[in-house]
Amino acid sequence: RNYVSSETLELLVVGLAASKMNTLHWHITDSHSFPYESTSQPNLAKYGAYSSTQVYTKAKIEELVDWAVNWGVRVIPEFDAPAHVGFGWQWGDMEKQGELLSCFQKSPWEKYCLEPPCGQFNILNENLYPIIKDLYEEYIEMFRLDKGDRYFHMGGDEVKLSCWKEDETFQKMLKEKHPDLSATEDETYYKLWGDFQNKVLSLYENDLGMNNSKIVLWNSHLTQKDNLDKISKDKYTIQFWGNLFEEHFLEELGNILDSGFEVIMSNYDDLYLDCGFGPWVGGAANNWCSPYKSWKTIYEADVRKFVTNTYPGSNHADKIIGGETAIWTEQTSSSDILQRVFPRTWAYAERLWTNPDSDVAENEEGSWEEAQVRLAHFASLMKNRGVSSNTFKPQFCLQNTGACVLPRTPSSAKQPIATLLPLLSVLLGLM
Question: Rounded distance, CA 50 to CA 41, Å?
């Protein structure tokens, strides 16, 4: 989306390590650009990188992984598919591989993808799969995915069925390969999507010897109740990005947990760091996930308590294996990404590791007021180490602890999660 330099990524790792955040999940490629310079498939960066200087070579990635390991941080790469692909994959016909993409740059874009430029894999083109296998093989080597806990992210979100339904080449291949399937029924495309996911999983596990890996997928239409049987809880961990204040997302999360999947939480109402800025595609005063998520909002994101109260009588909280702040780079780059990530991710580190009581009184241990002083001083220490962050408050306040604090008011005090239960109990009754 926007290129981030290797030097900035190294500083990001330092900032994560200092707060014991032990994972950098790296969504390296997208429909906008393909900055990874593959040795086996050089056309991907040739046709997909923004420029010859905005690429990550194999050597650079290995250097970053070594740097992260030395700081105690694992790097989990994401190769998002079958959506979130575009530039870098448009050369198929020129190389006699057929169309590797469906609906590439098709307009109006909002009909065929969530943001421009559009593109989804033509999952019916068999020439696509050897290319994916080559990339998986390189990722395994560069990111040492055959070592340690063997996490790999396969993406899987924001597929638009209209992309396949209205792509002429895809429809022709569908008729030839699957004459028994209806071209108009959504279930046809969910089946094909599920088949694609199982096929690339087999490439990764069986062809490349990566059995017993931990594969992560975003929640999507494939993880909704009617399609959840297409993937296995024994193979996949689900990263959940949905809004915990929207009923359909709560129902989906409940179904995922009921089915026994482990879950990583990145719910955008608390943990998306790119929210609250002006729109980059127009049409509204702010971007889609506004408002801005303050460090206080993130510090109070006690998701296990939320899950326990939302699904009473279950062991669902035990299935929440971690949390992750997310910074998408449509509106950030090397110049400001550290300030977008920190100090909010440091606040979340304390939530995840110490999990203080989220209902304590003002200024008591575990309260956001008490944490603010500590986090502000921590940010100053990190600035001296070269890791910048958004500034908490005037320096006067740092030098005069307690001088810049207003008492809580009813509107600013944290509302107990229990107040949400009347709404959620109605939803639970429908599940």
Answer: 17
Out of 158, 330, 369, 370, which one is annotated catalytic? 158
Using the 8-state DSSP alphabet, how is residue 272 labeled? B
Tens digit of pLDDT for each residue in 71-100?
Answer: 999 999 999 999 999 999 999 999 999 999
For residue 296, give every residue at least 6 positions away whose Cβ sits within 8 Å of its Cβ, in sequence order, or none: 347, 368, 372
From CA 77, how far away is CA 74, in angstroms rounded? 10
Assigned token pair, 289: 């996930």
Is residue 30 annotated as a catalytic residue, yes or no?
yes
Q: CA angle at residue 150 from 160 to 349, to 5 degrees? A: 80
DSSP reduced 3-state for 218 = strand
Report the pLDDT averaged over residues 155-168: 98
Which one from 27, 84, 221, 316 is the annotated catalytic residue?
A: 84
pTM of full prediction above 0.90 = yes
Q: Which 3 state secondary structure label does DSSP give 324? A: coil
| pLDDT given at position 258 | 97
158 is annotated as an active-site residue? yes
Give me the catalytic one of 25, 27, 30, 32.
30
| DSSP-derived secondary structure letter, 207 | I
Is 84 one of the catalytic residues?
yes
